[in-house]
Specification:
- With about 130 residues, this protein is mostly beta strands.
- The protein is built from no helices and 11 strands.
């Protein structure tokens, strides 16, 4: 069983920055793909950024490229999402997910069903 605990959300003005953290417990994350998704009210949960289980490959949805950075600290068993130049349309609940089906996966899965375990989410609100 893997437990994921997101933190770092909050209220920020447009143009500001936040760093989200996802602390995993119950399993070492170093060999698994992990990702951040977000869900705005009335919308589907959508992929934001992911990092592969092997090689550190990263992938971003087009709307956040150049603004967000996903990284992992295997020693801390934590994945981060650095969010810069935030926009009101980034407002959503952000969720961390982990794909424990495959070891050392070299690509970044982008489907919601690719990730078996999720955190409870952290709210990000960007004011204009």
């Amino acid at each position: 069983q893997v437990l994921l605990d997101e933190s770092g959300g909050g209220l920020v003005q447009a143009g500001g920055s936040l760093r989200l953290s996802c602390l995993a417990s119950g399993r070492r994350i170093s060999v698994y793909a992990m990702a951040w998704f977000r869900q705005a009210p009335g919308e589907e949960r959508e992929f934001v950024a992911g990092i592969s289980g092997k090689g550190g490959l990263t992938y971003y949805t087009d709307s956040v490229k150049g603004r967000f950075i996903i990284s992992r600290d295997n020693a801390e068993n934590t994945v981060y999402l650095q969010m810069n130049s935030l926009k009101p349309e980034d407002t959503a609940v952000y969720y961390c997910g982990i794909d424990t089906t495959y070891y050392n996966r070299e690509d970044v899965p982008r489907g919601r069903n690719d990730y078996e375990h999720w955190g409870q989410g952290t709210q990000v609100t960007v004011s204009s």
